[in-house]
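Researcher: Please translate sequence to structure tokens.
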Amino acid sequence: MAQGQRPRAARGGALTTRWTTVDQQGYAWLMRRLMFTATLLLAAAVAACSSGPQGEPVSNGDGRSALVELRSEAKFRPQLLSGYMGADTPEDVAPLNADVNELIDQVLAQPAGSLSEAELLPLIQSAVQQVDEFATEDRERAHRYFREVWTMVGFRGDPLRKIDGL
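Model: Translation complete:
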């Protein structure tokens, strides 16, 4: 079929077409362009989320009620909107929950408003080490919870970037 012609119906009514080198190159260019655009959007979103002074308290409150709520939440369950399909194995759910809840318990055990960045970072580092042997998606999900705890206590930025080795 010559370029610029409409595909013709073959036997059985199915449309046939032939990919030419030009069509394949155009498709590859389009895919590269889409990936570049998606990368830029993702970079902009990450930059927007991590902007602001690092390690400074966000508010005077210590977020204890939010921490209690997070502790009672069913973690490591499938969440379709975020794309997380749940823990790698059903046996991993309990220890992952325990590791996140242990960090929350350690934070709640401190007097209200007295936890500093220097005191919280080692607790998060210990929690990160505890989940280190789990599947990548589960580890990343646990890291998300650790970041939530950091924010709920009242700090900005990413605590995992402050921990050596990450």
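Researcher: Any highlights?
Model: Residues 51-60 have pLDDT under 50 and may be disordered.
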